[in-house]
From TrEMBL:
Belongs to the G-protein coupled receptor 1 family. Keywords: Cell membrane, G-protein coupled receptor, Membrane, Olfaction, Receptor, Sensory transduction, Transducer, Transmembrane, Transmembrane helix. It comes from Vombatus ursinus. This is Olfactory receptor. GO terms for molecular function: G protein-coupled receptor activity; olfactory receptor activity. Residues 44-291 form the G-protein coupled receptors family 1 profile domain.
Length: 313
């Protein structure tokens, strides 16, 4: 059985990504929608990274985390979206075996890193609001770097485990993945191996990553809410709420769709594709808008940068 599995595995040279099964004229429309959305992902996240690196007023732990969030959004969207865009204009809609492995590896790495980073950002807001006098001492540059490095390290370990168990399966007949990118669940569906252990490991990894980070976020915001309600000034309360509002919106967008994908029973393929679309391209597009439109410091830094360029010209 092991020898047969190895032979079958070695014969797989490519997979077919089904994507969205619509009429040919709608494929063209989807191509332009994806292209426009991905362009906004690039513009928004690269712009946010450049702004944070160049604006001295944004040299704080909160914006250090936000810069990394933009980098992660840009990275996992770029692991998936360009191939999806190209396949809208392709008849074959294929992806090589190596390309599929790389796509799953980088997507899993950055999506896990983002979940952990959002928990770190919740902890940062907890310290900033509940212990403002100790904020500079507790959220040191060294600690921030360690937290972010830990997010990437955990993402990398999880990704290696996920890719290893996924691509040691056998693929006997169908190589058609019913999604617009390579992901664990649709790949398991086309395997002729016994995928029980794979499913248990995949589900366990999802639970280990998602539930603790959600608990950290919920506990942090319980303390934050309690502290905010003790503030006598309405202006002070509104300022504190605005600081946390953007983060909560981003958390809701990501965790809502990811939990639906990986912690709930199998849904219809079309629902899965819509949920996947939300966190692979829509969320990375919205995150810079959420933080820039709701954040006074970001808006002021952007104005300063644009006025500086205008006066130079």
């Amino acid at each position: 059985m092991g020898e047969r599995g190895i032979n079958n595995h070695s014969e797989v040279n490519e997979f077919i990504l089904v994507g969205f099964q619509v009429r040919p004229e709608l494929q063209i429309l989807l191509f332009f929608i994806f292209l426009l959305t991905y362009s906004m992902v690039l513009l928004g996240n690269i712009g946010m990274i450049v702004l944070i690196l160049t604006a001295s007023r944004l040299n704080t732990p909160m914006y250090f985390f936000l810069g990394n969030l933009s980098f992660i959004d840009l990275s996992y969207s770029s692991a998936v979206t360009p191939k999806a865009i190209a396949n809208f204009l392709s008849d074959s809609k294929t992806i090589s075996f190596a390309g599929c492995v790389a796509q799953l590896f980088f997507f899993a790495l950055f999506i896990v890193a983002e979940g952990l980073l959002l928990a770190a950002m919740a902890y940062d807001r907890f310290i900033a609001i509940c212990s403002p006098l100790l904020y500079s001492a507790q959220m040191s540059r060294r600690l921030c770097i360690q937290l972010v490095a830990g997010c990437y390290f955990c993402g990398c370990i999880t990704s290696i485990l996920q890719v290893s168990i996924t691509f040691t399966m056998s693929f006997c007949a169908s190589h058609v993945i019913d999604l617009f990118y390579c992901d664990t669940h649709p790949i398991q569906k086309i395997s002729c191996s016994n995928v029980f252990i794979n499913k248990v490991v995949s589900y366990s990894l999802s639970v280990i990553i998602i539930l603790p980070t959600i608990i950290v976020i919920i506990v942090s915001y319980i303390y934050i809410l309690s502290t905010i309600l003790k503030i006598h000034s309405i202006e002070g309360q509104m300022k504190a709420f605005s600081t946390c509002g953007s983060h909560l919106m981003v958390v809701s967008l990501l965790y809502g769709t990811v939990s639906f994908m990986y912690l709930t029973p199998a849904s219809s393929p079309e629902l899965v594709k819509v949920a996947s679309l939300c966190y692979t391209i829509v969320t990375p597009m919205l995150n810079p808008l959420i933080y820039s439109l709701r954040n006074k410091d970001v808006k002021e830094a952007l104005k300063s940068m644009l006025w500086g360029e205008k006066s130079f010209l």
